Amino acid sequence: MSPNELTPAAPAEKLIYVVEDDLAVARLISGVLAEYQFRHETFRTGHAFLQRLRQQTPDLCIVDLGLPDMDGMALVRQIRERHRCGVIILTGRGHVGDRVMGLESGADDYIMKPFEPRELVARVRSILRRCEAPGEIGDAARQRVAHFSGWRFDVARLSLYAPDGGERPLSAGEGLMLLRFLERPNRVLPREQLLGQHDISPFDRSIDVRISRLRRKLEDDSYNPRLIKTVYGAGYLFVSSVVWE
């Protein structure tokens, strides 16, 4: 569905936090989210946002990088380290390096100012679909634990454990992506299948950034990967035997 075909329908239980110090922009985002029936709360400082975050975790955070009291990139990293909600960076910084840094910090998407409101809604819905997918795992699947190359993955908790027993925190998106690899080892998986979407843009490189993050969690060298190999023009290949219990 294109942004122009969006209809004002959103699950009422979804909660979005907006961290934006520019009052005009904050009002614009708030108005758009309200129009499409998203519950939301807005914060003008990072510290006010963190205080609220300690009380309740939202389904998605929209974070401006240019905050008055703290670095937006650092805030994104804090969110990703402690919570599994979706994260969209919203900023006026146009340098490609900022986009890559934001995605590397753990953001799921990156939107430039000025932005088209309907595009924002489309991105929000896309991230929410990705984040809610783990909840759609069946009861039987939730009981499974995968063992591969000395690693262990607990599906119910979306938790990854290294050969030394240490836990490697995963975001919901990373955990679901790893699950898709583990369910189909030694097969080339296209980008659309890994993201669980059929309508992604051919220019959407966020999948590559997520693969890079997952490789780091698995201590897999991006320049000479052992577990997740790139098959140019086709997708990615998970190279390992997998034992389920």
TrEMBL record:
Q: Which residues form the OmpR/PhoB-type domain?
A: 143-240
| Keyword Kinase attached | no
Entry keyword set = DNA-binding, Phosphoprotein, Transcription, Transcription regulation, Two-component regulatory system
PROSITE patterns linked: OMPR_PHOB (PS51755), RESPONSE_REGULATORY (PS50110)
PTM annotation (4-aspartylphosphate): residues: 64
User: Where's the Response regulatory domain?
Assistant: 15-128
InterPro entries in the record, alphabetically?
A: CheY-like_superfamily (IPR011006), OmpR/PhoB-type_DNA-bd (IPR001867), Sig_transdc_resp-reg_C-effctor (IPR016032), Sig_transdc_resp-reg_receiver (IPR001789), WalR-like (IPR039420), WH-like_DNA-bd_sf (IPR036388)
Portion annotated as DNA-binding: 143-240
The name of this protein is: Response regulator transcription factor
- Which species is the source of this protein? Vogesella indigofera (Pseudomonas indigofera)
